[in-house]
Amino acid sequence: MSNKTLTYLVFIVIVLGGGLFIGANNVPGEWYQSLAKPSFNPPNWVFAPVWSILYVIIGAVGARTWLSFRRTMAMRLWFAQLILNFAWSPLFFGLRDPSSALIVILGLLVAVIGFMAASWRQDRTASLLFTPYLAWVAFATALNTAIVMLN
Question: Of 5, 98, 106, 122, which one has the greatest count of Cβ atoms within 10 A?
Answer without folding.
Answer: 98
